[in-house]
Specification:
Helices cover 82% and strands 0% of the residues. It is globular, with a radius of gyration of 19 Å. The two termini are 19 Å apart. 54% of the residues are buried. It is found in: Cell inner membrane. GO terms for molecular function: lactose binding; lactose:proton symporter activity. This is MFS transporter.
Length: 381
């Protein structure tokens, strides 16, 4: 079961590793403006606002999460083929909205499947999830190397085998793994959401993803403008995820040693440092390497912390909807706003200004966490 659970993470994040560093470069090569690139990249996040909540609700009501993951994987892959028609700005936006509506449903559902599959052995989550990071690194490095020799317009074709990998992995998970008893409708979701710590948790994560908008949308363009080649760009993306893998391997020890709130605040502080370093010192390779190693904090640690909060506060009855809200409000709304605002800042003052905007957003998140965030209660289920 360990390898079956890890398999889908590998292929899902391998696709993400091909999209995030290189899709903005592909769009730039197609002739789109910075603001159009930001808008198109924001659509990847935008459907996370609606899709995970709808699919999470269906998963909680039916218990058929594996079946829903399969539907999302197959349909998303089919809809992505619309990119090969090379539509204009609005046509491409429609294609991206369509395929991400199904693709973005996969991960939140699968997180629930994984955590419930691990049962009491939740400490192994990091070791399952780290294979997603391995897939990301492998994809970033390989695609970056290939793009040194082929035109960027081949990128959509290079993505198709990764879509196929996700589909195959989804069908490798036993159907019984998703046949968990349906949610009976009881429990007070509103009461959970109105707790001050839960509101602080969501506010912190929304601002965290707003701060990542410049990174996911313009980091590759930022580096290319400074003279880095595509392979070097890929290696720098991979370095960040490699640091994340190391952290996932030891995260259970970190949780044993430090309170969750302490981990969250320390990770936010390192994220603030990361954006400042990228904004001002990206031309300095050692400093940029240090900044990329901070990805272990800005994504790895804070994601592991968030999984802990969701599991503790939303429990069994609302686990699917809690995961969907986390994905929708933070990666969805926060990511989309961050991508679009970064486009405005890049048009106005360049990529450096966008990363200073990221630093501003994370500074507010740090204040919110310091004042209102509390460590979640421990649960045994």
């Amino acid at each position: 079961m360990y390898w079956r659970l890890s398999n889908l993470y590998f292929w899902f994040f391998a696709l993400l590793g091909a999209l995030l560093p290189y899709w903005s470069l592909y769009l730039e090569d197609r002739g789109f403006s910075y603001l159009q690139i930001a808008t198109l990249m924001a659509t990847i996040q935008l459907t996370k606002i609606v899709a995970p909540n709808l699919w999470g609700w269906l998963g909680d009501r039916t218990g058929q999460r594996v079946r829903l993951v399969r539907i999302g994987s197959v349909t998303g892959a089919l809809l992505f083929t619309g990119v090969f028609l090379e539509p204009g700005f609005y046509g491409l936006m429609l294609v991206m909205l369509a395929f991400t509506f199904f693709w973005n449903a996969v991960l939140p559902l699968y997180e629930v499947i994984t955590l419930q599959g691990l049962g009491r052995d939740r400490a192994r989550y990091g070791r399952v999830r780290l294979w997603g990071s391995v897939g990301f690194i492998a994809s970033v490095a390989l695609i970056g190397l290939i793009l040194e020799y082929v035109d960027l317009r081949w990128l959509p074709a290079l993505l198709m085998p990764l879509f196929v990998g996700i589909v195959v992995a989804a069908f490798c998970v036993p159907s019984s793994q998703g046949q968990i008893r349906p949610h009976d409708g009881k429990g007070n979701l509103k009461g959970i959401l109105l707790q001050s710590t839960v509101m602080a948790f969501f506010a912190m994560n929304i601002l965290l993803q707003v701060s990542h908008g410049a990174y996911y949308t313009f980091f590759s363009i930022h580096l290319e403008d400074l003279g880095y080649d595509k392979f070097s760009v890929g290696l720098l993306w991979s370095l960040g995820v490699a640091a994340e893998i190391v952290l996932f391997m030891v995260m259970h020890r970190v949780f044993d040693r430090f309170p969750v709130r302490t981990i969250a605040i320390a990770a936010l502080a390192l994220t603030l440092l990361r954006w400042i370093l990228i904004a001002e010192y990206s031309a300095n390779v050692p400093v940029l390497i240090l900044a990329q190693c901070c990805h272990a904090a800005s994504y790895g640690a804070l994601h592991a912390v968030s999984v802990n909060y969701i599991h503790s506060y939303f429990g069994f009855q609302h686990h699917g909807q809690g995961q969907a809200l986390y994905s929708g409000l933070t990666f969805g709304a926060g990511g989309a706003v961050g991508a679009w605002l970064s486009g405005v800042l890049v048009e106005w003052r360049g990529t450096g200004a966008a990363f200073w905007g990221s630093a501003g957003a994370i500074a507010v998140a740090l204040v919110i966490a310091a004042i209102w965030l509390r460590s979640p209660p421990k649960v045994e289920h």
